[in-house]
Amino acid sequence: MRVITLFGLILISSNIFSQQLKIEIDWEGEKQYNIGKMSLTVPNSKNFKINYSFGEHFKLVNQWEIDKIIDESSVQVSEITYSDIDINEFNGLEKINFVSEAKFTFNSSVSKNKIFSFLELEPIIFSDGRFKKVDSFIINYRFSNESKNKKNSIQSSVMRNGDWYQFFVSESGIHKIDRNFLENLGVNTQSIDPRKIKIFGHGGEMLTMQNTDNFLIDPIQNSIKVIGEEDGSFDSNDYILFYASGPKAYNSENNTNLNLFENKISYFLSIGSEDGLRISDLQEPVGESSFSIDYYTNYQFHENDDYNLAKIGRRWFGDRFDFENIKTFSFDIENLIVEQPVNIKVIAAATSEIATTMSVELNGTQLSTMVFGSIGDPILATGDSYSSNINLNTAQANITLTYNNNGNPASTAYLDYISIKAISSLNFNGGQLTFYNDDLDFESEIVSYQISNSNNILSLWDISDISDISEISHNQESNLSFKSFYSPSNKFIAYDGVDFYIPTIEDNPQISNQNLKENIFFNSLNEIEPVDYIIIARSDMLFEAERLANINRDENGLNVKVVELQKIYNEFSSGNQDISAIRNFVRYVYNNSSNNNSLKYLCLFGDASYDYKERIANNTNVIPSWNSLNSFSLSSSYVSDDFFGMMDSGEGMMTNSNKLDIAVGRILADSNSRAKDLVDKIETYYSENSYSDWRNKIIVVSDDVDEPWENIIQSTSNDIADLITENKPFFNPKKILADAFNQETSSGGERYPEVKSQLINGMKQGALVINYFGHGGEDGLARERIFDKIDAADINNDKFNCFVSVTCEFTKFDNPNRETAGEYLYWNKNGGSIALITTTRQIFVSVGVNFNLTLENYLFSLDSDSYTTMAEALRLTKIDPSISNSDQRRLVFFIGDPAMKLSIPEPQIIITKINDIPLLEFESNIRGLDLVNIKGNVLNSDGQLMNDYHGELTATVYDKEIERSTLGNDGTTDNSGNPILLDFKTLGETLFRGKSTISNGEFEFNFVVPKDVGMQVDFGKFSFYSKDNNSQEDKNGYDLSVLIGGINEEADEDNLGPEIELFMNDESFINGGITNENPNLIVKLFDENGINTSSGVGHDIVAVLDSNEENSYVLNEYYQANIDDFQNGTINFPLSDISPGSHTLRLKAWDVYNNSSESEIEFTVFDENQDLVIENVLNYPNPFINYTEFWFNHNSSTTLNVTIQVFTVSGKLVKTILGTTESFGNNSFSRDISWDGRDDFGDKVAKGVYIYKLNVRSESLNKSVSKIEKLVIL
Length: 1274
Prior knowledge:
By secondary structure, the chain is mainly beta. The protein is built from twelve helices and 85 strands. The strands form 22 sheets. Strands 57-60-65-64-61-67-68 form a seven-stranded mixed β-barrel. Strands 1, 2, 3, 8, 11 and 12 form a six-stranded antiparallel sheet that branches. A six-stranded mixed sheet has the order 47-46-50-54-55-56, sandwiched between helices.
C-alpha cells in the first residue's frame, strides 16, 4: 500500500480501483477580503484555498493534477471530526446560512484533457446550537474507465430537405391546424399529399444547462393526427391535431415556471417526400395491474416576469408591493382530494435599506411571515420563501400577501411566484385534461388508470414521448380505464373535441433549408477540414462577422466558420432562443471525431443583456450570455461567457469545478454600424500603419492608498511591471502609481490631474497593454476619476491597446441603459482599446491580486517565447489552480477577437559596436555631450544575421533607472502609525529617440548625449524596434550592459538654441489659419547637436496655450529624431477640445547643451455651430502654363464637394472642375484640385487673365461657401 502526500493531503492507495484520502485541514488565523469600502475577514487555511462569497458561502478548495477520471458515484466521506468555532470573530461570515451537515464535492475537473482532482467542502456547520468547523475526514473513491467526453460523428440535419414553415404556440395542449392555416403559412394545399406533412419541435421546456452525452442536435419530429389524409389530398374539411407544450411549466434548474427566453414557442411544419409520424393506437400491456390510479398531480402557479430587481442575473419578479401592500391571489383546485395535503410555496424579495416582512395567509389564516434583510453594497435585494404542506378543506385557495415596510416608504417588495401542488381525482369536466403523477415511488409496473365522468371524452393520448404518441378512442362510457407500464415520465391528455388551441404565425414563416451540422466541417472543395474558430452572429451582422473571419484566415491562418445564430436555434432548439443550444452546437463541433480537437476559439459577435425577452427599452440582447440564478449581489451574481466554452460532460452548471476548454471572446456590437466600426479597428490593428515601437511599451496604473490594506494595490501594479520586464526585458514599462503624484482638491473632491494626463498621453503615444488595478466602477477608474467615460469616448489614438482592468464593474455591459467606461473605451472608433480583459461585477481585491499576477504570466508568456492569444491567456488564467478555486473568476471577460494575439515583435536586435569598439570590449561609460556612434545587427531565431532584412530601426536610449517613492497623499498609516509609502523604480529619462536605416540586417546611428544625463555612472538601457520594408516582420531588442553617466568636459562649445517651426495639422498650414477643435500640433526642430528630451530640471519641451501655464503640455515623449539624422526631428501632438475662437501657442525647446529657443503660432478653431469657412484661397503656381493647383484652408473635418468655375474677364464660362477634398486626421488644408489650362472641350485656353469661383459644400453640415479669385495663364 502506498501513502502519498499531496498539498498536505495523505493519499493511501491500495490499488487502482480503491483510493483513500485522509485529509486534515490546517486552520491558521484569518484571511481578509476587501471590496468597495468593506473589509471582511474569514477563517484561513494553510493547505486549502478559499472560495468565499459575501452573504452566500464560505468553502474550502483543493485541487491537483491526476491522469484518471474519478468515479463520482463511488465517493464516500467518513470519519469527519469537528471543533468549535466562534464565528463572531470573523465579520465575513455574517449573513451566511450555514448547513447542519458538512457538504463535500469530490470529482474530476477537466480542461482540454488536463485532469484535476477537485475537492470542495463547506467546512462550517451549525448543529446542536453550536458552530463547528471540520478538522479532518477521509474520502474513499475509485477511478472510472470512462472519458469525460464522448466523440460524435458528423450528422446531417432533417432541415436539409423539404419545405419548412415556422409557427408558434403559447399554451400547452392539443392544437389544431386547418387548411386555411396552412395556406397562411404559404403551403400550396392544392398540391400537397397530407401524408407527407410532419411537425417538429421539442416544446417549451428549456434545454438543460448541464452537459449531457445525449443532447438535442436536431428538431424532434412529433407524432400527429391528420384527419382526412387517407385520400392523399388536403381538403377543406381536413385538419391536423397535435400536442404542443408552451412556455409555462416548472423548471427546477432555474426555479421558475416561465421559460427564461421565450413567451411563445417555435414549432416547424415540414413537407417532404417521406410520410410523417402519426399517432398510433395505444397498446395496453398484457397482465394484471398492480396498482390503480384514479388521481393526478394538480399543479398551478401564479408568476409574472416584469422586474429584474438589481438588473443582474436571470431571476425576474412580477407583482409589486409598495403603496398597494396587500394582494390576494385565488386558485380553484378542481376535483381536490381534501384528505391529501396541499403544498403551497411562496417566493418573494424586497429592496429596502431596513429589514421588512411579508405575511402569508391562506383563506384568512396566517401561515407564516417572510423576512427580508436590509440591502447595502454589494447586496441590492434580499429574498425569502415559504413552503409547507397544508390541509385544505375546500377547492378554493385564496392566498393573501401583506407587505410591511416597517415605516420606510422607499421599501418595495416583489412576488416571484406562488405555486400550489395538490392531488385531484381523475374526473373529466370537459375541454382538455392533462394528467400525470409525480408522487409514486415505483417504476415499470403495470398500473391501471381510472377516469370518471368520461362520457364526453372523445380520445385520450399518451404524450409521454412526443415522437411516439398513442391514443385510445373512447366509447362514451362513464368510466374510462386503461393499463400502462408506470414511469415518472408518464403523461396523458384527454379531450372532448370541442375546443382546440390554435397556433400563431409571424412574418415570413417559410424557412430556408439548412444543414449546419454537416456543412460546418466542409470547405469550398467539399473536403472535411477541422474547424479552428467559430464566429456566431445575428443575420444582420453576418457581413461584418465574415470580414472578421477573413482577417483571421489571412493573418492567423485559421479555418474560421461564421454561423448565423438563428440557424443554431433552428437545429439545436427547434427555433427557440436558448443559451444551451449555442453551447450544444459548439460542443457538437468540439467533440466531433472529424474535428481532431481543433476548435480553439469562439467569438460571440454581438452585445448581450440581462433581459432575454425584450422587456426593457433599448435592449441589446444580440447574442445572449449566461446569467446566474443569484440575482441580488454585485459580487456573486455573474454574467459569463465561460458557459459556452465548457465542453466536458457534467459541466455547464457553472459550479466551481467546471473548467474552460475554449477561449471565448465577445464583440460588443449592438448594431451593424457598430460592428463595422469594431471590425475596422481590428483591421487597423493588423495594418501597415500600426507598426511602431509602441509595441515595446506597457503601462501599469494603480489607485492610491485611502485605507491601510490598499497598499497591496499599488504594490501589485509595481510587481506586475517588474515581473514582466524581469522576464521580458525588451518591454519598456511606464508606471503611473497615483500616489506618486500630487493630489489636488477641487469642488468635486480629490483629483490627480497629472495621473489623468499621463494615462491619456500614454494611450495616445501607444502601449501594447495598459493594466489598471484599483477601485473602479461603471463610470470610470478610481474615486479621484483619473479616467472616466468622457475620456474613454473622446480619446483619439491610432495605436490600440489591450486594456486590463481587474476592478469593479468597469465593463458591466449587460445593462443596456447604463453604458460603462469600458464599453466606451472599446467602442471608440477613433481610438481606445482593441480588446478588454475586464470585469463586469465587483471583485475582491485579494482575488484581483492573484488574478492579475497569474494573468500576466500567460498574457506575456513569461516562461517562453511562444505567445498565446489574449483570450487563451485568460482561459489559462481561469483554469490555473491558483485562481480556479474562486467563483469570481467568472466575472472577468474577454471583450474582443479571441484569436487575436498581442502584437509582440520577435527577437532580436543587438548592438555590435559602440564608437567602433565591439560591445564586449567597450568598457567606458557614455557621458553627457559625448557624440556616440552605435552599430548593430538584426538576427533571426537562430542568432544569425538576417542579411536580407531591409527596413527601419527605432532606437530609444534611456538613462539609468530612477528611484522614486509614493507621497502618501491621504496620510494613510499602518498599524504602527507609520505613513504607507512605496519605494519603486522607473525607467530612466529618454536620452535619445530616433530612427536608422537597416540594410542587409545592419544599422548605424549617432546621437549626442544630453548634458542633463545623471552624473552617477550605472547601467542604462537601449531599446530597439524594427520593421522590414517588404514584409510584416517586426523585431525588438534591448541592451542593459552599457554604462551611462558623467560629463564630457572637453566637448565642443554650443551656445545656439534649436530652430523651431510650428504648424497645425500639416506643414502647409499658414499662421492664423483655421482648425477644428482637435488639431494636431506639428513641431519641426533642428539643432547641430540634437534636441534634449531627458527631462532635466526646467529643460522640458513645453507648449503653452494662450499664455496660460495651466494649459501647458510637456512634449518630450512625443519627439523623435528623423531617420539617420539626429539633428532634425519632429513632434506630432494631438490637441483636444480646444474652444472655438482665436488662440496662440508658444513652444520652448532645449538642445542637448541646454540652450533654448521659443516659437509661437496663431490659429483659429472653427465653431461647428457657425458657418463653413474657407480662407487663404489661391492657385499655385500663378501665373502658370499648363498646370496649377487650387489651395485653400477650411474649417471642416468632413468630406467637402468642390466646384471651380473659370471665367473670362467678360464673364464667359470656359471650364468647370468638380472634385472632393478629404480631411485626413485634423488636416484643414486642401490642394486636391488641379487644372491643366484646357477648357471643357479639351482645347488650350488662350493666354491672359481669368476669374475663377471656388465653391465648397459640406453635405453632412448642409452648408456651402464660395470665393472669387484671379489667375493668369502664360
